[in-house]
């Protein structure tokens, strides 16, 4: 199943005016459960960061998390990097129109060659590591790019069906993934190898979140892969199913999950 073309079409539809891009960010915040978990994690960390913190959005995509962080604290200086130059140019235009180019910069970049030594108080990486084969190298680059006592936050699929893969006979729901997901032990060991301490990994997308994801993402994308005519049907589909997804998201956020298809990981670069 092709997820990236659908994502690109949605991005193109909402690009252009400030209003349309803000609507896109609002909808992504509501629709994507991972945004709920990331938002809570950022709020918990924000109080420990200096008012003039330097932040890296590592794999910024549409820029929705850069937008969120730019509004959390107007003193933060944010750099957003992505390997896709189209995303970067589109975000540059939007953030310039929004009057944020003085404290938010976008740059095309490959995280495997990131060399911003001791630059950031916080690095956020959402739905990125499952796309990168050389993950330990990237984790080491993250470690080297953080200030002492800096924090890394990662949201990524787990190995318990995070890419909608449940056994060896299945293929990923998203063709662009190079791995189906991480186990808690696996990602903890790799982050430790990179030098991180204070590692905390918790499952997201437990049973309620997984059902919500199917209703709000998987089934609509499957329909759109069949025919773009379903773009006309989607508003009516979401009128029916979005309230259900919203309730399920609340439960997923509030509950502690023994297993789940997503992982939220925080790690520190502790001072020696």
Describe this protein's structure.
By secondary structure, this protein is an alpha/beta fold. It has a single domain (4-203, 260-268), classed as Rossmann fold, CATH 3.40.50. It is built from nine helices and seven strands; from the N terminus they run αααβαβαββαβαβααβ. It has helices spanning 4-14, 18-31, 33-46, 64-72, 85-97, 135-145, 184-194, 207-226, 234-254; strands at 54-58, 77-82, 104-108, 120-126, 146-157, 197-204, 262-268. A seven-stranded mixed β-sheet has the order 3-2-1-4-5-7-6, sandwiched between helices. Strand 4 (120-126), helix 6 (135-145) and strand 5 form a beta-alpha-beta unit. Helix 3 (33-46) packs parallel to helix 4, helix 6 (135-145) crosses helix 7 and helix 8 runs antiparallel to helix 9. 40% of the residues are buried.
Main sheet overview: 7 strands, mixed
- In oligomeric terms, what are we looking at? single chain
What is the number of domains? 1
Q: Approximately how much beta-strand content do the residues carry?
A: 15-25%
What's the end-to-end separation, in Å?
47 Å
Please compute the radius of gyration using only Cα atoms: 18 Å
Tell me the name of the CATH class: Alpha Beta
Number of strands: 7
> In order across it, which strands form the biggest sheet?
3-2-1-4-5-7-6
- Under the CATH scheme, which architecture would be assigned? 3-Layer(aba) Sandwich
- CATH homologous superfamily (4th level) name: Vaccinia Virus protein VP39
- At the fold tier of CATH, the topology name is Rossmann fold
């Amino acid at each position: 199943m092709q997820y990236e073309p659908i994502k690109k079409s949605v991005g193109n539809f909402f690009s252009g005016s400030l209003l349309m891009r803000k609507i896109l960010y609002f909808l992504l915040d509501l629709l994507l459960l991972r945004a709920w978990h990331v938002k809570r994690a950022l709020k918990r960390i924000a109080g420990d960061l200096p008012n003039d913190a330097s932040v890296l959005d590592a794999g910024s995509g549409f820029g929705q998390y850069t937008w969120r962080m730019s509004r959390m604290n107007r003193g933060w200086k944010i750099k957003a990097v992505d390997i896709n130059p189209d995303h970067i140019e589109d975000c540059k235009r939007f953030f310039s129109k929004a009057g944020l180019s003085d404290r938010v910069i976008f740059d095309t970049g490959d995280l495997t060659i990131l060399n911003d030594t001791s630059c950031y108080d916080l690095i956020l990486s959402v739905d990125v590591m499952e796309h990168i084969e050389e993950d330990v190298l990237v984790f080491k680059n993250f470690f080297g790019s953080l200030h002492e006592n800096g924090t890394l936050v990662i949201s990524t699929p787990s190995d318990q069906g995070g890419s909608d893969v449940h056994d060896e006979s299945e293929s990923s729901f998203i063709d662009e993934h190079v791995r189906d997901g991480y186990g808690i032990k696996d990602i903890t060991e790799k982050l430790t190898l990179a030098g991180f301490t204070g590692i905390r990994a918790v499952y997201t997308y437990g049973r309620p979140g997984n059902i919500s994801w199917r209703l709000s993402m998987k089934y609509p994308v499957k329909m759109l892969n069949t025919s773009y005519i379903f773009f006309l049907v989607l508003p009516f589909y979401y009128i029916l199913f979005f309230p259900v997804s919203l309730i399920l998201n609340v439960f997923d956020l509030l509950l502690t999950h023994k297993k789940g298809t997503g992982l939220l990981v925080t790690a520190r670069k502790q001072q020696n």
